[in-house]
Amino acid sequence: MQLHDITLMLTLSLASLVGAIILGILSQLSRAVEGSKYWAIGLALLSVAYGSHLFLQGMPLSIRANSHNLCLVLGHACWLIGAYKFVGRPLTTQQKTWLIFPVVVLILTFTMIWPAIEYRIAIIGIWLIVVRLHYAWILFRYAHNNRIEKLAANIAAVVALAEVCFTIIYTIYGSLGHLSFVGTQMSWVSGITWLGALLGITISTPLLMLLSVGRLVEKLDFAAHHDPLTKLLNRRGFFAQAKPILSISKRNKQLVTVMMLDIDHFKRINDQYGHAIGDDVLEIFSGTLRSTLRETDIVARWGGEEACILLHDANADYAITVANRIRESFSFACKATSAFDNAITLSVGIASKQLSDVDTFDFIQADADKALYSAKSQGRNCVYVSAI
Is 307 within 8 Å of 301 (Cβ atoms)? Predict the structure, then answer.
């Protein structure tokens, strides 16, 4: 091997290994970071692929070639699988099999059964071109949860396209028999291809780390502001979103309407049907709220089976209409599950007032809560409006 050949291979192997370790740690910090585990495995496989020519020099050429080629293919397959998982479109087992199995069979055939380096290079090269193009398209098309993620994904896609250009050149020259084995004197095509691979890893790895960390922070922020079961806002998330709305309402002297909702006899549901069914009821409840309310309305799980809704610039009459719509939709959705002998209903309390130094949100919410208890005392399954 020439000195520069050893340096490139060792650098590629170490760069891939470092990236695999860091992404592996990130994937263990939160399993909610989709895709990072596959990216870590992919980098580890690429580290083995590039290191095989260094650490297996005493082995037969067929073993070195198979180690390099199989790990190279499996590593890039993991990158693509990870990209699909990252954007929330995980591949099925059958799709993963069709992605990997045919190319592995062809590689082994043209290495062990019918040694033909030109065919092998052509097959691997074409496969890598397709996979890298697909990887770039997936990130460019779907990875845009926020501005930073979209920018990082777009840069990663451009890097993948640059690697495609190097791979096309390498595949053409290799298919025509103009390339030598790795470990002998490198041609200019091999040199720029390995340099391109090194640049691709050193640029793509930090980008994948950025995507993983960004998604981790996003998941942590969501968990801090949302209820894990219903995915509605919790109280912290509610007040974080409500603060600017309340400020605008106070400045413009707009009505602030608060609705407090409670599932009737929820403890009885848990006792009679079990907590799993009770959780299903809560999910139906949250789904009904999301489908009924406006985008400008803010809803949170207030505790247990209670929910609080802030209606921006809406009067009590509008709130009554919305409350009755929610009650009817919720009862219908529960009845449609055919899991309950009796109808499941809601009670709603409403309070509406302009904000002032005295009449704060807490004051209006407390009054809506009193109205809710009045609805309960009047027989449940109804709407009660506070007199303030």
Answer: yes
In a domain, 369, yes or no: yes
* pLDDT value of residue 3: 42
CA distance 132 to 157: 9
Please identify, among 199, 224, 249, the residue that sits at the C-terminal boundary of a domain.
224
Nearest to 216 by CA among 23, 16, 17, 18: 23
Taking the C-alpha atoms of residue 337 and residue 333, their distance in angstroms, rounded to an integer, is: 7
pLDDT tens digits, residue range 13-54?
A: 888 898 899 888 888 876 667 788 999 999 999 999 888 877
Domain containing 375 equals 235-385
305 as an active site residue: the answer is yes
Q: Do residues 355 and 250 touch, judged by C-beta distance below 8 A?
A: yes
Answer with the residue of higher pLDDT: 56 or 39. Answer: 39
pLDDT average, residue stretch 340-366: 87
HSE at residue 313, side-chain half, CA atoms within 13 A, is 11
- The per-residue pLDDT for range 287-330, each reduced to its tens digit, is 999 999 988 899 999 988 999 999 988 889 999 999 999 999 99
Q: Residue 338, exposed/middle/buried by CB under 10 A (0-12, 13-18, 19+)?
A: exposed
Q: Mark whether 19 and 160 lie in a shared domain.
A: yes
Active-site residue identified among 163, 305, 306, 328: 305
- Domain end, chosen from 224, 256, 283, is at 224
> pTM value?
0.74
Report the Cα–Cα distance between both ends of the chain, in Å, rounded.
87
- What is the C-alpha separation between 344 and 137, in angstroms, rounded? 47
Q: How far apart are CA 258 and CA 338, in angstroms?
A: 32
The tokens describing 291, both together, are: 């489908």
